[in-house]
Specification:
Elements: E1 3-9, H1 13-24, E2 31-37, H2 45-51, E3 56-60, H3 69-73, E4 84-85
Parallel strand pairs: 1-2, 1-4, 2-3
């Protein structure tokens, strides 16, 4: 795996869709994407499932922070298998 992309998200479906599309459209590299959902209702799950792509993993934060991306992003680090993490 070349790149692991960790996307913390909190109630922003349009930006999330654009971010996932951008990460997966990179050419000549292998990429995995981890969407870490920080909203209590799990609002990002529907966006992720619409892609139906095995390179995307959805993780719901068990203790939502209310939109603190650095805390949420750190949930994805242990999952990453890429040589580089973004």
């Amino acid at each position: 795996m070349d790149f692991s992309v960790i996307i913390p998200t909190f109630r922003r479906p349009d930006s999330l869709r654009e971010s996932i599309t951008s990460a997966l459209s990179q050419r000549d590299v292998t990429t995995e994407v981890f969407v870490i959902d920080d909203s209590p209702e799990g609002s990002a799950e529907q966006v992720v499932s619409a892609f139906a792509d095995a390179r995307i993993s959805y993780v719901r934060n068990p203790q939502p922070t209310g939109g603190r991306p650095s805390v949420v992003r750190n949930l994805g680090w242990p999952l990453a298998a890429g040589n580089l993490v973004h």
